[in-house]
Amino acid sequence: MTLLLGAIADDYTGASDLANTFTKNGLRTVQTIGIPDPDLPLPDVDAVVVSLKIRSVAAQEAVSAASKAEAWLRARGAIHVLYKICSTFDSTDAGNIGPVTDALRKAAGGPVIVTPAFPETGRTVYAGHLFVNGVPLNESPLKDHPLNPMHDANLVRVLARQSAGTVGLIDLTTVAGGPDAVSARLAALRETGVTTVIADAVFESDLETLGAIALEAPLSTGASGLGLGLARALVRSGRITQSAQSVEDTIGPVGGLAAIVAGSCSTATLRQLAQAERSMPVLRLDPEKLLSGPDELASAVSWAGDRISAGPVAIAASADPQAVGRVQARYGREASGHAIEHATSAIAAELVFRGVRRLVVAGGETSGAAVDRLGIPAFLIGPEIAPGVPVLRTVGNTQGNMLLALKSGNFGGDDFFAAALSMMH
Ligand SMILES: Nc1ncnc2c1ncn2[C@@H]1O[C@H](COP(=O)(O)OP(=O)(O)O)[C@@H](O)[C@H]1O
Ligand SMILES: O=C(O)[C@@H](O)C(=O)COP(=O)(O)O
Fold this sequence. Notes:
Layout: E1 5-9, H1 12-24, E2 29-33, E3 47-51, H2 59-75, E4 80-84, H3 97-108, E5 112-115, E6 123-126, E7 129-132, E8 135-136, H4 155-161, E9 167-170, H5 172-176, H6 179-191, E10 196-199, H7 204-215, E11 219-222, H8 224-236, H9 247-250, E12 257-262, H10 267-276, E13 282-284, H11 287-292, H12 295-307, E14 313-316, H13 321-331, H14 333-353, E15 356-362, H15 364-374, E16 378-386, E17 389-395, E18 403-407, H16 416-422
Parallel strand pairs: 1-3, 1-4, 2-3, 4-11, 5-10, 5-11, 9-10, 12-14, 12-15, 13-14, 15-18
Antiparallel strand pairs: 2-16, 6-7, 7-8, 16-17, 17-18
Helix pairs in contact: 1-8, 2-3, 7-8, 12-14, 13-14, 14-15
Bound molecules: adenosine-5'-diphosphate and the ligand O=C(O)[C@@H](O)C(=O)COP(=O)(O)O.
């Protein structure tokens, strides 16, 4: 397999978001789960997004996994590698955006452009500060994230705390000045020893400028907005010779039963579950019971078994910040997160065992755990359900063709679940 653009995503929902962006912008793209087995039958593509589950692991583990993925992508011809992070910069002072970018930039030089801007979903960066739907990051729902609550909107500061290098800023005026202005600013920052730059971006045109400059370097770090800029720059460069196949042709119906499993506690997911309750059976798991033994899991599977042949069902661990806080106070943040991911992934696997072939999973970590448990090695990218969330078709899994949607916690409108199921046949 040869490719032009490589990406390493720090979680699986983020990977499907980026793969969707690449596809929409003209690149034939496949999403792999980790480094694929050499025997896995993958189509010819322009871009591969290697999905890792490294957003919330120890920094050294993240660096090691990302470095191996980068070596694999470069060995297959990637002229540029994008380290795909969350558009809400999900991380802690221990990492992992800084440590992974530092490790990958060692071979790549710098300064490396970093921007989580993704205007289509309301993520903009101005004066180095991240806004989520017009609200500073630290005032947005991300302040209550169960694993990485974000308390500082100043990304230069946030990245500096988790980076061994020196972090600078390319401001919006410079970006609006176009590629030459950005290049000149990068050269000036390089002279002063800056290794990594947060780049402002408010409009897609800003990301086109940044993508064009980033593509001239071996590495960048960002969300789907930067992915859009890179993809468009690559298409403009004339190096993409075949048009991306119509996404509807890529997938096709799979039949089977349908279900939703949710572990995301994001505001958007909570609203979507409330809306789903009006049209389908929704089981709210009791996290305390989930954490204290196998009974809650078994009764969830039996609840679904009684209903699922009549139509889609949803099973959710999701809870509001107060309830999440109570669980975390009792069991610890990481321990409760992992235990609930374990439970939701076990439920997803049981549902698939009972005939579910169309599965929507809400939550990044939740999706990672479920996809790993199902042993899915790769996905083809189908039509977009909502910005950042495509229909995915499995490749190389033992259960036969399945359709999945991996929904990032904060993505999708209130009717997302019904919209997703209506596109997955
Ligand atoms: N009721 C709950 N109490 C505490 N933690 C929970 C609860 N429900 C889910 N979680 C955990 O919260 C985390 C949500 O993260 P994730 O799946 O990445 O969602 P998002 O995409 O919204 O960030 C997971 O680790 C999940 O297991
Ligand atoms: O960039 C984004 O916002 C998404 O692609 C993403 O990574 C979201 O992560 P989760 O909300 O944890 O799914």
